[in-house]
Amino acid sequence: MDGKHQVLKRYFGHSSFRNGQEDVIDSLINGRDVLSVMPTGAGKSVCYQVPALLLDGITLVVSPLISLMKDQVAALIQMGIPAAYINSSLESNQVTKALEYAARGKYKIIYVAPERLHTWEFQKFCQSVKISLIAIDEAHCVSQWGPDFRPSYLKIAEFIDGFEVRPVVGAFTATATAEVKKDILNLLNLKNPEVVTTGFDRPNLYFTVLSPKNKNQTLLSLLSERKDKSGIIYCTTRKNVETVCGLLIENGFAATRYHAGLKDDERRRNQDDFVYDRKQIMVATNAFGMGIDKSDVAFVIHYNMPKDLEGYYQEAGRAGRDGSDADCILLYSTKDVATIKYFIENPNENEDLTQEEQELLKDRQYERLEHMKKYCTTKDCLRNYILKYFGDDCGDYCGKCGNCLSNFELVDVTVAAQKIMSCVIKTGQKYGKRMIADVLRGRETKRLLECGLETQSTYGIMADYSKDEIYNIIDGLIFQGYMQNSADQYSVLKVLPQSHCVLYGNEKVEIKLKKNRAKQAKGKKSDDSYDVDGKLLIALKVVRTYFAKKANVPAFVVFSDATLVDMCRKKPTTKEEFLEVSGVGEIKYERYGKAFIEAIKRFSS
User: Fold this and answer.
1) For the purposes of burial, counting CB atoms within 10 Å of the CB of 598, is it exposed (0-12), middle (13-18) or buried (19 or more)?
2) pTM tops 0.85
3) pLDDT, tens digit (0-9, with 9 covering 90-100), for 70-99
4) 391 partner at 20 to 30 Å CA-CA among 263, 301, 581, 584?
């Protein structure tokens, strides 16, 4: 067994590398820069942690996420790997002490916030020790056109150039379009990099979009189906976080909250309550950072539609990080679109961008919003829609999303399409979906009457259709390229030239509609432990909790749920058998093996 496989087995408890990991590790060990694009949960951290243990000097991991640093350092220490973090959560004397220990060779891996790189104390430290590898996590933050741009990331290349002997550099991200990948390569100044993209698919995740009339009622129903599961509920605004969290607590759910309006100590306390399993559900805005490393999240529900697919896939990807099946459910409402448009039109000022760049950024945000809306309204495979957006593909049918598994039928809507497009044209192509639907249904709204649209020949010609039915047909026409929804604040419908063949009766239009529109799919309950002894699994969780509390770490840092499930299946009673369990390395066997084997023996006797 070579060095990298020995490290993988001894510390991480795995006998083989996942797709793409070995290519990244080999390049870094051989001194070649790398850009690695792997989905959340694919094991990006192993790609720089294994080289860190094989190379002579210290590895710096640049991360913008305090919570991720804390969790990953705790996990590394549990595996027997000496590590530390340096960020704003530490007092100045703690930073000095950590750097002194590192200079003495106490740590192999140091996590550091990007803002810390250019401080005098840290630069002095870097010049006094051998830095063999710099790993840049969440590397998409360097791109101004990505959704998580951080100006501090633009200074990383300058920091790297300051070394007399340049360390090898690895850039890692889970969400990067082709444009963002190009930015990462250029702005981080990677030298002759190996680009490893393993694909964006997360096969263990089930995706579905619901459009409930009552979000609160639907949410409570979804949570009732997932009792005893750990999950995250994302909301667009702080107000919604407060409202939803209060609703859950009133209905007996163990929930807590997280948003930027809370004081730092309360945010930390609430996050710890979730990570340490004192609360099962976290209700949060996207301030609940992208690096939350809790492996046993069984579901992520978006109470509101996110602003873009990058953010959605990143947030949804916090489910099922240990490889277990997990649900990603989005509760869609057209009101969410209006909220996002408000945020686009009223951004936080960014002094690092010129006025021209800010306008361009706004245009990009509207473009990304359109992709997000299409995801919420498409009747095609949801997984494939996401993957195509990131330049990947899984085919037209994944068999594991709400659309592929729902009962759809192909419906001829040619006549309805002709009426809708005629209405758009005859009203001057200057109104949005809502107004067009009101005209077609013969509504007498104040704005419609003020605009004199009740005199139009198309007024009331679809009075027998519901608003949602007209909306669905419009969405289908947009998706198939017959119409467009302008990507700006006002979302005006326009008819495209290719629609003429439909208007003049030369082409048929078919779209997918649910056979029973009143019945919404409720998502798929998933449970990886269905084929294991439930009582044994509970007993192993009790043992895990004991060690977690003793070490003051989250339970999943001791062993993930997936590892406990594998223990239940294999029922190891010797050291050799225990080391065959996925996620069990030699260090963890030495710390915990005997206690877990004893628990297994009690159930086997």
Assistant:
1) exposed
2) no
3) 878 888 998 889 999 998 888 888 989 989
4) 301
